[in-house]
Amino acid sequence: MSIYLPTRSVVRELWKRQLEPSKIVSENFDDAKMGIALAWPRMMVTTGSSSDVFDVTASLVMGVLSEKPASSGNTALAFVLLVLTLRRNNWMLDIANEDAVQFMSRLVQGNIEEKNIVIYLRKRSISVE
């Protein structure tokens, strides 16, 4: 089973679109940090060390939150990538907006371990194959 991950150019475009409503033009995006955030999930996929989309997605989210490739909006970017990665791999996250905010807040505060992210995503996702 192949797992689809977003490319750096897709991530950059998502980040730019998040900024459009605020008309902020002075924000910076660090491609090197994004590359680092994508490195472990890519290695998981290419080496076959994990074929579980939830493991890979959790790794991607944690990578973005720890590396902070954007000068602002990293939490929103991580959530968008979470939803996009699940959706591109035939899964849909089924949670209320309030639950999503609470989940991402707990992640940013470091109150959830990666293995628990995987459990959370698995319990709250619906297969759309």
Please explain how this structure is put together:
A two-stranded antiparallel sheet has the order 1-2. The model has no long low-confidence stretch (mean pLDDT 90). Helix 1 (8-19) packs across helix 4. The two termini are 13 Å apart. It has 6 helices and 2 strands, in the order ααααβααβ. The protein has helices at residues 8-19, 31-46, 53-67, 74-88, 97-108, 114-123, and strands at residues 91-93, 125-127. It is mostly helical and 129 residues long. The chain has one domain (8-127): Fic/DOC protein, Fido domain (Four Helix Bundle (Hemerythrin (Met), subunit A)).
Can you tag this structure with a few keywords?
globular, Four Helix Bundle (Hemerythrin (Met), subunit A), 129 residues, two-stranded antiparallel ribbon
Largest sheet data: 2 strands, antiparallel
Strand order in space, largest sheet = 1-2
Compressed to H and E, one letter per element, the order equals: HHHHEHHE
Q: Look up the CATH topology.
A: Four Helix Bundle (Hemerythrin (Met), subunit A)
Number of strands: 2
What would CATH call the homologous superfamily?
Fic/DOC protein, Fido domain
Structural class: mainly alpha
Note poorly predicted spans. Answer: none
Count of separate DSSP helical elements? 6
Report mean pLDDT, rounded to a whole number.
90
Strand content: under 5%
Q: Based on Cα principal axes, name the global outline.
A: globular
Instruction: Assign the CATH architecture.
Output: Up-down Bundle
Helical content band = 55-70%
